[in-house]
């Protein structure tokens, strides 16, 4: 739950409107709502093919109260680079107008980021294009039928990794890939920690160059979880260190945002998702071991930079 204090700090204005076609408990909708509360009305959205591509553009349930552009799967970052360049050109021609205040935002799923869109994103990051790129990560291609992506975690059921052949490879570390580009700002966020997410989006807004946000956004439909557990999962995944909340500035300055006095067990998180129901005790223990290993690696990176 969001406290009254948090709600007041985040703001009451809604830019992503009710009555849209998101599924019940959709993490994507919540993520975009928080992001737009932080960015405000002078924002232009580019969304490549994904659940959001359908939600923002499906008449008569078009939801954004701000300009947006639907884009091909692979072209989110490339299109946003062009939009940002257009705003820059307009601001030079018409100084003092709204163009120089505009923020270019990409909101893309994990498939459109870690797989199909990675080439365009890498190119934008190498050029340090002036965009905010947000990957809302629901860990599969949900819009086209719950197929495996490279962001799907080990052990998960999808329609292309059925129970007898569940995904045996680890989730792609997209944050590490982006850090290798030495862009100005990278952050992880979870919709279960809205105040943290809003602060990070506001921080990204005030930075020039490529900013990358990796946002954890559960999908009850694809995860076989209850819609009312979306926020619960979004907090559990941080508390058990599967998805730590941290920032990276200029490629190598790490800051841990949520410190854990005691890590919660991975088992509790797995148990309330049907996509992991088939796993054996040994496979769950393996997942716990891998999470512990990655957590220790992150702590070493953070401590080495302090």
Short description:
This protein has an 8-stranded mixed beta sheet with strand order 2-1-3-4-6-5-7-8, with helices on both faces.
Walkthrough of the structure:
The structure is a single chain. The protein has a single domain (4-305), classed as Rossmann fold (3-Layer(aba) Sandwich), CATH 3.40.50. Helix 2 (27-39) packs across helix 8 (194-205) and helix 4 runs parallel beside helix 6. The protein has helices spanning 4-10, 27-39, 51-57, 76-93, 111-115, 118-127, 174-179, 194-205, 220-223, 230-239, 266-271, 281-305, and strands at residues 43-48, 68-71, 103-109, 132-137, 185-190, 211-216, 246-249, 253-256. The mean pLDDT is 93. With 306 residues, the chain is an alpha/beta fold. It starts with a helix and ends with a helix. It is built from 12 helices and 8 strands. Strands 2-1-3-4-6-5-7-8 form an 8-stranded mixed β-sheet, with helices on both faces. It is 40% helix and 14% strand.
* CATH fold title: Rossmann fold
Number of helices: 12
Arithmetic mean pLDDT: 93
The CATH superfamily title: Thiamin diphosphate (ThDP)-binding fold, Pyr/PP domains
Determine and state the CATH class: Alpha Beta
Percentage of residues in strands: 5-15%
Count the E strands: 8
- Side by side, the strands of the main sheet go 2-1-3-4-6-5-7-8
What is the CATH-assigned architecture? 3-Layer(aba) Sandwich
Shape: globular
Low-pLDDT runs: none
Radius of gyration: 19 Å
């Amino acid at each position: 739950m969001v406290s009254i204090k948090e709600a007041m700090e985040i703001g009451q204005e809604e830019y992503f409107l009710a009555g849209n076609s998101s599924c019940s408990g959709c993490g994507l909708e919540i993520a975009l709502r928080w992001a737009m509360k932080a960015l405000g009305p002078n924002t232009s959205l580019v969304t490549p093919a994904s659940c959001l591509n359908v939600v923002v553009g499906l008449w008569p349930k078009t939801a954004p109260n701000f300009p947006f552009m639907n884009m091909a799967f692979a072209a989110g970052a490339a299109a946003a680079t062009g939009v940002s360049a257009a705003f820059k050109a307009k601001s030079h021609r018409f100084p003092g107008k709204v163009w120089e205040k505009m923020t270019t935002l990409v909101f893309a799923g994990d498939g459109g980021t870690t797989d199909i869109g990675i080439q365009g994103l890498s190119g934008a990051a190498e050029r340090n294009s002036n965009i905010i790129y947000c990957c809302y990560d629901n860990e599969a291609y949900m819009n086209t039928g719950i197929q495996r992506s490279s962001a799907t975690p080990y052990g998960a059921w999808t329609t292309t990794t059925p129970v007898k052949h569940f995904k045996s490879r680890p989730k792609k570390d997209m944050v590490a890939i982006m850090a290798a580009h030495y862009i100005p700002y990278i952050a992880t966020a979870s919709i279960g920690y809205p105040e943290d997410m809003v602060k990070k989006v506001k921080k990204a807004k005030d930075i020039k160059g490529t900013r990358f946000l990796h946002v954890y956004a559960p999908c009850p439909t694809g995860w076989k979880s209850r819609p009312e557990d979306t926020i619960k999962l979004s907090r559990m995944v941080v508390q058990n260190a599967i998805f730590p909340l941290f920032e990276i500035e200029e490629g190598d300055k790490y800051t841990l945002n949520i410190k854990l006095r005691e890590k919660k067990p991975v088992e509790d998180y797995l148990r309330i998702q049907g996509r992991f129901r088939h796993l054996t005790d040994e496979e769950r223990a393996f997942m716990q071991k891998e999470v512990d290993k990655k957590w220790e690696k992150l702590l070493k990176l953070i401590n080495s930079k302090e």
